[in-house]
Amino acid sequence: MECLFGLVGKDFAITVSDATSIQSIVVMKHTEDKSRNLNKHIIMLYAGEPGDTVNFAEYIQRNVRFYEIKNGIELSPQAAAKFTRRQVAESLRSRQPYSVNLLIAGYDVKTEASQLYWIDYLGSLIEIPFAAHGYGAYYVTSVLDRYYYPQISLDEAKVLIKKCIDELKTRFFINLSNFKIKVSNKDGIQEIVL
Amino acid sequence: MSSEIDEYNGGSVLAMLGKNCVAIASDKRFGMKLMTLGTEFPKIFQATDKIYIAMAGLATDIQTLSELIRYKINMYKLREEREIEPTTLAYMVASTLYERRFSPYYVSPLIAGLDKNNKPYICNMDLIGCVTTTNDFVVGGAADDCLLGTCEALYEPDLEPEDLFETISQSLISAVDRNAASGWGAVVHVLTPERVITRTLKTRQD
What we know:
The structure holds two protein chains of two kinds.
Chain A: E1 4-8, E2 12-18, E3 21-23, E4 26-29, E5 35-37, E6 42-48, H1 52-71, H2 77-92, E7 100-108, E8 113-119, E9 125-127, E10 130-133, H3 136-147, H4 154-171, E11 179-185, E12 188-192
Antiparallel strand pairs in A: 1-2, 1-10, 2-11, 3-4, 5-6, 6-7, 7-8, 8-9, 11-12
Helix pairs in contact in A: 3-4
Chain B: E1 12-17, E2 22-27, E3 30-32, E4 35-38, E5 44-48, E6 51-57, H1 59-80, H2 86-99, E7 107-114, E8 120-125, E9 131-134, E10 137-141, H3 144-154, H4 161-177, E11 186-191, E12 196-201
Antiparallel strand pairs in B: 1-2, 1-10, 2-11, 3-4, 5-6, 6-7, 7-8, 8-9, 11-12
Helix pairs in contact in B: 3-4
């Protein structure tokens, strides 16, 4: 029931996660942050089995950080995504696999380009211009298919994100009232409100 | 649509034998059951200058296995100080798959290549590494039954590279256009002793 999505623009990546924390039929919280920053430029969104999600996200976050301290270089979004994919894929065939769906978005300082990676709980990794997880994907991808174009500007992307959220609010049967929106560009990661 | 795990992400692959050449092709779709998520998902991997591997099946296993095979090919090259031969590679992949006999990688790999005497070779195998070598064509993936039909109708032996390209392309396009889990463009490699011809194809976008 959770919804994560994101898109890549001209020189930035923007991500959206719903801020609703649900247990059984009860909404526990409207301000849950379902994201972790892996470094200065990489955002990771997560959804899935409660417990697994935060545990896995922080495991990745700290291992990416550890790699950067050990080697003295910042990991690119691609490298972080491929490392994460492998951890999910290895966990899949373990006794107790993590059930976590992820989006990794970021700005690559070296190539000066933004990327978005979609990873599911099986460990499939794809790089795409826009992506979504959860039931919300059925609504959001349709809107993005219609209005997204490569090299979209940040201002227009914000309008587009607003369109996606409005669609979810009108057509999705779960009341997702609040969303957390993050932007990653050359200056780092900022949380924004529309 | 099948509920089988090997057709969860969709995708199809195909290889054909020509006169002193081989061709290998795949579609580009990545989906989750009926929903298409990506249209640039590579299913063909270069093993050496003259050997390519294509894999259809569960995307996570395609990625994991292709990385594992790349590692093994690199180790082989370092240890032996020569390039691996197509048949050797086929049995290397097969034993890698059989190691996982009771929790397999859900993939159907195809191998197409030219050996050290530039003799063309193709084979396919099942998910636990049972190798089948043929002297015409091999297929795999969600549209494998469609592919078998189109190949059976269009294939003829001893085709020159350009004719082989046309035959493999038309066989793949006809088959994946009829299969909901495959399509969204295709990639074709034709391997000749002199060079590798790589072309991308447009197919139906639905």
